Amino acid sequence: MRLLMWLILAALVYFAVKKNLRARSNKMRSEQTASNDWADASSTYSANRKESEAMLSCAHCQVYFPASEVVVRHQKNFCCIEHADQASGSSSS
Ligand SMILES: [Zn+2]
Fold first, then answer.
1. Do 7 and 46 have their domain in common?
2. 27 and 17: one domain?
3. What pTM was estimated for this model as a whole?
4. Ligand 1 center–CA 44 separation, angstroms
5. Which of 6, 41, 84, 87 could be disulfide-bonded to 73 (CB atoms 3.0-4.6 Å)?
6. How many A from CA of 56 to the centre of ligand 1?
């Protein structure tokens, strides 16, 4: 009877320690996945940003710039008005 009591006590301590260790490792794992999720979220966020904004290359300097900043001159895309003027001016003269 006394042996059974000790066995139950040992089992309780064993499970308590095991539960504690698992909780600690789970917490560490959840913290790791949380940081991974954050990195994934930030990378997909920047990827989405990249996808949402189409990039065009300037016909004058070949620099890539967001499509929202495009200057169209003679069906060509330019990064700025100066390059559009330079390209049209050089082609006409
Ligand atoms: Zn340019």
1. yes
2. yes
3. 0.42
4. 29
5. 84
6. 10
